Amino acid sequence: MEVSVSLPPQSTTPPAPPAPAAAMGDKRYMILIGLNYMGLLLGSVSSSLLSKFYFNHKGSSRWVSTWVQSTGFPLLLFPIYLPYYLFKCTQRKPFSRFTPKIFLLSVMVGFLLGINNLLFSWGNSYLPVSTSSLLLSSQLAFNLILSVIIVKQKITFSNLNCVVLLTLSSVLLGLQGGGSSTTPQGLTRTKYLIGFFCTLGAGLLFALYLPLMEMIYRKVYCYAMVVEMQLVMEVAATALAFSGMAWDGGFSEMRNESSRVFDLGPRAYWLTVGFNVFTWQLCFLGTAGMIFCTTSLTSGICMTALMAMNVLGGVLVYGDEFGGAKVVSTLLCGWGFCSYVYGVYVNQKKRNEEERAKDKVVNESQQLQLQLQLMEMSA
């Protein structure tokens, strides 16, 4: 007896890009996540402290602080071109399958990053590192809301709990005002509020950037394309900062700062600028890699986890006050983050159990079908 097997019709729709874990294997995938998170850790903490160091030693140009966040884009040429032309460890030529649509999206997001960099510079110039870091932790709340809208992120109790706690944390810092003993000299109540709202604005724009990039990365086939997109975005952000500096006399101000204003001398000034350029590239590339390897919300969670490191760095390096409202705010931030991580763990464990149960049912069904086919053939 002949057994006929019908094949499903072939789809003419192009296959979606494979998930990063499936495309590169679990081991390489975890290594890539580890490297990107290490870059995010080092870049985030170091760039925040160096930016504050610049302003503490009489650096005053917010355009310069904005410019250094993106002007290190030539450093990305090394990971883009060396693997193909020097190390011969990949067969993919740089910028292969880099479509005009992806290029245009990269430019638009790059301008968004340029505005975000300026807001961050304004906020960081007025606020202590610990305060600005805790305020930026509110980007996770914005990230959750925008992720629901843009990438259809599912809302859970742990999500909402985290949003409420982080929002309360930021409001508590805002109500504290500029009366702290660690308030920089000459900082008025008005300037404190400007720094407060600029920092919140930077958190909102960055929260918008995260789900936008998750949506765009769904059309990306490999991590190399992520680095290439990052290069285009940084060029666009640098062009915006360059225009602002040219319009506002930022380049002449930079020369004047290095020789006359910066109280540690020209050499220390240019070393500060140079290290700041490098650490910001680590931070942004690590962020992009985390979004590509996981999700925008997971990337936001990882960044929130680093806020405590930024707060600790501000306290240890610059002697920022860590008492009263900041203690309560940090506890609320940690509470929200831990509850969210626990919720993710529980949900993931439940999904794994459901998948195992589903696989068991599928295997039993396949074995039953095989037995029936053998019985038919023997008959």
UniProtKB/TrEMBL annotation:
Membrane topology: Multi-pass membrane protein
Domain of life: Eukaryota
Alphabetical keyword list: Membrane, Transmembrane, Transmembrane helix, Transport
Biased composition (Pro residues): 11-20
Species for this entry: Escallonia herrerae
Subcellular location as annotated: Membrane
Protein's UniProt keywords contain Coiled coil: no
Pfam families: PUNUT (PF16913)
Keyword Transmembrane: yes
Cellular component GO terms, alphabetical: membrane
Record's protein name: Probable purine permease
UniProt similarity note: Belongs to the purine permeases (TC 2.A.7.14) family.
Regions that span the bilayer: 34-55, 67-86, 98-120, 132-151, 163-180, 192-210, 222-247, 267-293, 300-319, 325-346
Record GO terms (molecular function): purine nucleobase transmembrane transporter activity; purine nucleoside transmembrane transporter activity
Region: Disordered, residue numbers: 1-20
